[in-house]
Write a structure and sequence with these properties.
Elements lengths: L13 H8 L8 H12 L17 E4 L14 H12 L6 H12 L7 E7 L10 E5 L4 E10 L1 H18 L5 E9 L8 E4 L2 E9 L13 E4 L5 E3 L6 H11 L3 E8 L13 E9 L6
Parallel strand pairs: 4-5, 5-7
Antiparallel strand pairs: 1-2, 2-3, 3-4, 6-7, 8-9, 8-10, 10-11
Length: 286
Amino acid sequence: MTLQYYDLLQDKTEKRLQYLASYIAPELTIGELQNFIDDIANKPKDSKKTNKSNKLDAFKEIGDDFETHADFSKLTEQQLKNIYQVFISREINDRFAVKWRFYQYFKYIRDIIIESIKINQSDDATKIIDFIIETEDNKYIFVLCFDVLDIQKFNQGIEGCNEFVKANKIKPDRIFFVTNKTFRDIPIENAVIIDNEELIAELWLEINDESSPFNNEDMLIISNSDLKIAGFNFTSMEDLLDYVYEFSDGGQISILKKADFFSEVEREEFEEELIWKGIMIKNDIS
């Protein structure tokens, strides 16, 4: 069972949607929620090119207000619907949705220490780069998001990165092509040329793990912490473990689930089932 598409929900009340949104993990900040709403408003209505997106001032830093907590109670019905369809049911797979799900995932990735993330909020329909990520070691990552990645879009992405580098004097150390679906002819194993230097582009593909021991409607409970999170935040067990590693204190960890907790089926009690047990060592050994 998976969370229903919005149109099939029996309960579309603001209270119900706000409740589900409160279990989005990592939790959205005030600024991130406002950026999400602004990004919806700035979604291009046509294919007119404005060249705004080729300038660094089209990018805005996001996520630097990490101590704040988003308030969903003031959202409109349409805004709550957008939150639900992008993060919870994941029924929308356009570039906008892929972009925001990537951002949510990237906030708890373990092997990259983030210094800052800048989001492109230009309304230019032909914009290429969606995020510029600066790492702790002063490296830059360009992130390009797509609904479906084909060879034409791939080549346009490389061309757009070169144009941006030329205009802004910022050179990427890595390039991520993030997509919901892709064709097999993407030459991802071949080096690309950015500002006369070779670089290997990296493909990030949204994948749902059908063998996962939990589904979208399950409540996930981390035994030695206050973490209670919804299954809809994760596409695989690996994603879940990355999140637990980042946001728990480590040590002996048990992960339990309450099956179908977020479904519309009413129950008086939900049984807890152990789905993972182990030890997470968070000591920095150098």
